Amino acid sequence: MAQFQIDKGRFISSRIVSTDPAAEAESLQDGDILVAIDRFAFTANNVTYAVAGDQLGYWTFFPPVPSQSNEDVSGWGVIPVWGFADVIASKSEDIDVGERLFGYFPPANTLRITPVRVAATRLIDGAPHRSELPPAYNSYSRVSNETGYDSALDNQRMLLWPLHITSYCLWDMLQEQGWFGAKQVVILSASSKTSTGLAYALEADESAPDVIAITSQRNLHFVEGLGLYSKCLTYDELAHVDASVPTVIVDMSGSGQALGQLHTQLADNMKQCINVGLTHWDEVVPGKGIIKSRSQFFFAPSHIQKRIKDWGADGFAERLAGFLRNTAEKSSQWLKLSTVAGLSGLADVYPKVCEGMIAPDEGLIVVLEDDT
Fold first, then answer.
1. Nearest to residue 189, comparing CAs of 225, 214, 219, 164?
2. Structure confidence by residue, pLDDT tens digits, 152-189
């Protein structure tokens, strides 16, 4: 049993630290449960969690375990992942051994959860260290109780849903804001799965402006093949973005250089820049010419909470569910799932994820084993 950790000072470096599940089970307090993590997805979005770990509190969710007694682990962090787990021990009156949960987990074999606000299909982890963190990340679906739950769809759900929830929220915000007066939407890192989800939403919206894709030369063929964009350009072709058209930028890349060039080029026609992801994490340096007064960071959990207040939890869930089903079905036409064996397999492929070397049509599914 083990936990996958990364060096917060140089997060392309990682290590695997052994854990003791027997000791974890013995340490359960009344009301706690212990889950065995079965599988999780790993994408460039998880690298974003690492880059924004300090600013947005991602390091706080799952504290790293020491590799030896009294080790200072302040330099190590645990990247959260989305996946499935089964309850293997329970001191909760509400949760039985054998239940299956979907939600936010560490890349590790086990996790102790303190269930609170338990409902038929959902529970919240009430662990004290998570109490100030976004509620959307502390919520777990009790999939065993979901009508029509099909474990055969677990891989697509954990890979696409967390990303496409952000896609939905982005589209909803842009629409609510009247596209910020823009006549075209420019999406940077258009090959990312979050970008693809947003492009599906924009394609289905007759009121949406034209959508321009910016991607690497390596991923250009894939992005063009999606048929979702009115124009597909590489980062070397940013000058071809029509600067005479009012534009909103949705940035999944975090590339300061690309943003600086676009902001300078568009000038007054750069109506708003929505910063979302950091797929180009090694270029996260403020670019010359960036218009900060018309730039904003988009945090999906905050938008989710806003819409739950507006529509109610059931109303938001109903709207979202239809979107997720639709985008998952469309994505299945091109998505290829690749299985990674255990945390050691994740350690092997992790540098490739950091370096953006995973093909855009590939989805990594880490399947854990007892002897990891």
1. 214
2. 889 999 999 989 999 999 999 999 999 999 999 999 99
The residues facing 309 across adjacent strands are none
Asked if residue 290 lies in contact with residue 265, where contact means CB atoms within 8 angstroms, the answer is: no
> Where, residue-wise, is CATH 3.40.50.720 in the chain?
162-301
Q: E strands of 216-293, at which residues?
A: 231-234, 247-251, 270-275
Beta-bridge partner residues of 336: 362
Cα separation of the two ends of the chain: 6
User: What's residue 338's pLDDT?
Assistant: 94
Q: Indicate the CATH number for domain 2-149+334-367.
A: 3.90.180.10
Q: pTM of this prediction? A: 0.86
- pLDDT of 280 strictly over 50: no
* Separation between Cα atoms, residue 321 and residue 326, nearest integer Å: 9
Confidence of residue 286 (pLDDT cuts 50, 70, 90): low
224-244 pLDDT, tens digit per residue, is 999 999 999 999 999 999 999
The CATH code belonging to domain 162-301 is 3.40.50.720
Residue type, 228: L
3-state SS, 290-305, equals CCHHHEEECCHHHHHH
CATH 3.90.180.10 domain residues, the chain: 2-149+334-367
